[in-house]
Amino acid sequence: MPSKYYDSRPVVHSHIILKPHHKKLIIGGSSLMIILLIALSVFSYMIFTKQELYNSMLNKKINDLKTETNININTLSESLIQSNKDFVKINSQLGIIHEEFTSLKASAGADFSAVIETTVTGVVTVRTDISQGTGFLISNDGYVVTNYHVVENAKAATIITSDNQNHKVSILGYNSDLDIALLRIEGNYTPLKLDNSDNVQVGEKVIAIGNPLGLQFSVSQGIVSAIHRTGPNDLNYYIQTDAALNPGNSGGPLINTDGKVIGINNFKAGNSESLGFALESNHIKEAVNEIYQKEFAENLI
């Protein structure tokens, strides 16, 4: 048999043996990777922080812009509101100026034509079976004021309006001390307005509208000669005027340049001229409301 030969050389296992410079390369590469990761993290963090800062600044600018816009809108709104108030105020002042100008024209020009035109429709003729006088409308639903002595003891009465229409009359009540009677007719009318008689000035121009001696809707002009004169009732409630008053003027209105009633023509001194007297409008109002309250428990004017 052939002889078996054995290799007597030592068996060497195969493996890689790293040399020192290889180890340095591996360690250096790992360190570099770690450094790169750290640098990337820092860079990312810086970018994120910068973005957050930018967003914060942007949001602040947006909020500041919103605030500024709201302030501007509010300022503009306030300006518009103020402009509207100024416009209304100017219109109101223009209206006052127009009224004063109209009043001045009537006063300075001694021309009551415009006043007469707007007031005569509120004046009425009061006819009874024993006398004739004047009255005037104080409400749009037909309440009429006149002197009590015009209807006193009358058994029948008729009111004639400025359109020459006859109307049946209801006598609601009276105040004999102030010589005031409250009447009523059916229909809708344009009444006269009572002015505050406390504001009446001596020397101001006035007109009296009435039916002197049966001459319907006659007008006389004069001035206020005095105020708070004492009447036959011993009350100082009367305006003295030099506007001509004659029988038939009783119960008619004494009207100022504003077209408002400052008194109700009541009597004149004897047979003298230019000494007429009218009950002041504030006392007309008191008497009328007193009469009206007895039936309706409220004021009429």
Molecular structure report:
The protein is an alpha+beta fold and 301 residues long. The protein folds into 2 domains: 88 residues; 181 residues, Thrombin, subunit H. It has 4 helices and 13 strands. The strands form 2 sheets. The chain has a 7-stranded antiparallel beta sheet. Strands 8-9-10-13-12-11 form a 6-stranded antiparallel barrel. About 2% of the residues have low confidence.
**N→C terminal distance:** 161 Å
The 3D shape can be described as rod-shaped
Quaternary status? single chain
Could you tell me the CATH topology label of the largest domain.
Answer: Thrombin, subunit H
User: How many structurally independent domains?
Assistant: 2
> How many E strands?
13
Succession of helices and strands: HHEEEHEEEEEEEEEEH
Query: Number of helix segments?
Result: 4
- Which CATH architecture of the largest domain? Beta Barrel
**Helix share bin:** 25-40%
Class by helix and strand content?
alpha+beta
CATH top level of the largest domain?
Mainly Beta
Strand content: 15-25%
Could you describe the largest sheet, including whether it forms a barrel?
A: 7 strands, antiparallel
Unreliable stretches: 104-109
Physical arrangement of strands within the biggest beta sheet: 5-4-1-2-3-7-6
State mean pLDDT (0 to 100 scale): 82
Top keywords for this entry?
single chain, 301 residues, alpha+beta, Thrombin, subunit H, 2 domains, 7-stranded antiparallel β-sheet, 6-stranded antiparallel barrel, 13 strands, 25% strand, rod-shaped
Q: Could you provide a short overview of the structure?
A:
The protein is of the alpha+beta class. It is built from four helices and 13 strands.
